[in-house]
Amino acid sequence: MAGSVADGASGFEERLALFVRDNRLYGAAAGVVHGDDLAWSGGAGFADMAAGRPAGPDVLYRVASITKTFTGTAIMQLRDAGRLDLDDPVVKWVPELADSATPQTIGAVTIRRLLSHESGLVSEPPGTDFVARQPSYQGVAAGNLERVSEIFTAVPPNTQLKYCNLGYQLLGEIVSRISQVPYPQYVAEQILAPLEMASTGYEPLAPELAHRCAVGYAGRAFSDELAIAPSMPPLWAEGGLWSTVSDLARWLSFQLAAHPGLAADSAQAESPVLAAATRREMHKPRYLSDEEWSSAWGISWYSARKDDVTWVQHSGGLPGFESNACFDRGSRVGAIVLVNGGADAADLAMSLAAQARELAAAAAPQLTAPAPTPAELLPLLGLYAPADMSFLVRVEWRDAKLAIVEGSGPGETVPIERGSEPASFMIAPGFRRSGEPVTFQRRGDGTVTSMLIAGLGSLARLDPVS
Fold it and tell me: How many CB atoms lie within 10 A of CB 181?
């Protein structure tokens, strides 16, 4: 089906070229993802104006805060391995914070709240000045912890969205302390290498990558010429990655593979990098971040609603660079925009992805053979009802999952997952009874006679009349 999205190449190229022209940029690169495929990619203008080097999908750009999605992934890897809990107070792992300027509230700053920007911590490290002729920023956690008395909770934790670069720097420090591996090395070994993202990394970049980097350009003053943006001091977990459209396409495909759809059998659906269920947990909105109900924060990702589509995404911005990577879980399309200048990368990314979404919807559906029902589940399938026969439910093998089907409306098909014990089951996440057990009673010959749903009651299995 990627071919149908690729048919929009001329339209994608036109949007990108107009974006560069209308924003008076020197250049930008972009790509459109459909499932496992980079369906289209291209560049407009220049990565390096002086050298005449063109923009393109294999040019490295600063992706800035898109880095946070990698840091969050590292934290979730450690959570899934049982090495931390998301509700751990950050002072458990960074005890120096006990000497912060607000010791009475610092204990309420948890890993989960850092991940979703609701910790209340000051947004930037002490002494930050982004608009100075030479930006002042301490990107190394050890340096900021030496000034811990200047770190404080500016608003009470868990009360509002408060975007926090310092918080992600602390998350990177937690990754290093728990893994006993420097943060950039951990990300390279545990995330980038397994996903074959060979053109992504932190400074200092290897020479073969450094010569492919775009030049960052600052906003113009009084003429058409753009000045070269000042360089940033070293930074890592909160925004230090350089990457390409081609590599970030792999990153988006890895996210999309966690959701049922066109590539449900993708090799990345279940990956040693991060379980599909954990990726879905990261994408799911946790709280609304505006009163218009147009945006929400998940874990390291945020969602924005545009034209009735919820785009899961992250943007980035540092002197000389703007970026965005977005995707739609339902249609399994996404887009990446990397700019070596100042412009609204998110608006173009969502526009490209919306065009791809329309193309994907217009294509003929991909038909695949259904997954066979596991033999041990066959005896569970059938109709069930309470003693007064006031309603009926079906237990079915549907879309490669065991499910209780109550009707045809939204939320009326409830997947059942296997429990920790043999022949045990529980309601899948996302429903009123999530995590509660479902028990099937049997006669001595193994015939299923009833199903007990915790919190609801026992439903008898209705056998067909011979």
Answer: 15
CA atoms within 13 A on the CB side of 410: 1
Full DSSP string of 92-142: HH-GGGGGSS-HHHHTT-BHHHHHTT-S-B-SS-TT-BTTSSS-B--B-HH
Name the strands in the sheet holding 295-297, side by side, starting at the edge strand that comes first in the sequence.
53-54, 37-48, 27-34, 333-339, 321-328, 309-318, 302-306, 295-297, 287-288
- CA torsion, ordered 391, 392, 393, 394, to nearest 10 deg: -170
pLDDT at 265 over 70: no
Please tell me the least confidently modeled range out of 24-28, 367-371, 442-446, 448-452.
367-371
Q: What is the dihedral of CA 86, 88, 92, 98, to 10 degrees?
A: 110
Element (H, E) at 325: strand 321-328
Cα angle 32-34-40, degrees, rounded to a multiple of 5: 35
Task: Tell me: pLDDT of 248 over 50.
Answer: yes
Tokens matching residue 59: 């040019």
State the Cα–Cα distance between residues 127 and 124, nearest whole angstrom: 8
**DSSP class of 150:** G
Mean pLDDT lowest among 60-74, 119-133, 340-354: 119-133
Where helices occur in 204-294 by DSSP H, the ranges are 207-210, 245-256, 276-283
Higher pLDDT, 160 or 4: 160
Give how far the C-alpha of residue 10 lies from the chain's centroid of Cα atoms, to the nearest Å. 29
Would you say 162 and 118 are in contact if contact means Cβ atoms under 8 Å apart? yes
What is the reported pTM? 0.89
**By the 8 A CB rule, do 173 and 97 touch?**
no
